[in-house]
Amino acid sequence: MTQRMTYPFAAIVGQEKMKLALTLNLINPTLSGVLIRGEKGTAKSTAVRALAEILPEIEVVRSCPFQLSLNSERDVCRECARVECRERILKGEPVETLKRKIRVIELPVGATEDRVVGTLDLEHALKMGEKRIEPGLLAAAHRGILYVDEVNLLDDHVVDVLLDSAAMGINTIEREGVSFSHPARFTLVGTMNPEEGELRPQLLDRFGLCVHIESLQDPEQRVAIMERRAAFDEDPESFCRQWEGASAQLVREIENAIQLYPRVTVDRSLFFEIAAYCLDVGVDGHRGDIIILKTAKTIAAFNSRTEVIREDIDTAAELALPHRMRRQPLQDIVMDVKSVRRNRNQG
């Protein structure tokens, strides 16, 4: 069976903010994900799947439903009573591992809480007298990407669970008096069409970054989209080979940024600049300040720098503040943060 080719991330035309927001979240998962707002047919799902395809492989314990690495969270396997490696771990014997691509786990709109979080296998508990956890989508998404299309149509409670796990990096299953936790560190990507309704402000605030994308209006870019897509459909392998160099370069930049991020410093004067940004545009709470700081450091690392500059703060604010600014009832999310700040200061 021929393997299905994935459209290269580097070949996507335009939508630079979306591509930057996705890349930054992969460098620094503590940014708490990205919400992509915009109409259909603007390469949202294409970008997510393509980015996962070019990332380095990860090492996982074979047959582990929690995507665990060999050197971390072994206690999860001891509690699970389901993984094939359990007996080996308890005896201190070697455990078989394998390397595979980072996965994109898609969450269907109609997903129930049990499907997302996981549940207790009651039949096994009754027959064998021991607990066994049936992992949910959050377990499958650990160390990967959780993609939620039309996130605004999900049940609010399910969205709360997703955002809590994304923020804390842990998922807890509590059923029939049994409590079980496992790692759930993933890059959360939500997409939505604003015409179908907005998320509640409390939920919007939980997404680290937010971008709004539209159909490209430049004829040259629209023609480039058609040409590239036609070439990909006609000969996917040849088309992907043409973009191998650009894809490999992006991988190197991401890997370098991950290594560089812990060494990035921020001058204290820029902390005041971040605070002024949030106060000037009317942001409630302090999550926006913290996300801008993390985003600016990630941008600096992505640009191979160990010191944040003013331009990093500006770019970070454009990604971290649009969905956090105070708005009038029925007012749409304002995406031009710098203009809002300038107008309010002039006023």
UniProtKB/TrEMBL annotation:
* UniProtKB keywords: ATP-binding, Nucleotide-binding
Q: Which GO terms describe its molecular function?
A: ATP binding
Q: Which residues cross the membrane?
A: none
**Coiled coil (UniProt feature):** none
Q: Which residues form the AAA+ ATPase domain?
A: 30-219
User: Which Gene3D superfamilies does the record cross-reference, listed alphabetically?
Assistant: Magnesium chelatase subunit I, C-Terminal domain (1.10.8.80), P-loop containing nucleotide triphosphate hydrolases (3.40.50.300)
Annotated pathway, please?
Porphyrin-containing compound metabolism; bacteriochlorophyll biosynthesis
Specify one Pfam family.
AAA_lid_2
Q: Which family does it belong to?
A: Belongs to the Mg-chelatase subunits D/I family.
Describe the function of this protein: Involved in bacteriochlorophyll biosynthesis; introduces a magnesium ion into protoporphyrin IX to yield Mg-protoporphyrin IX.
The name this protein goes by in its record: Mg-protoporphyrin IX chelatase
Instruction: Give the species.
Output: Desulforhabdus amnigena
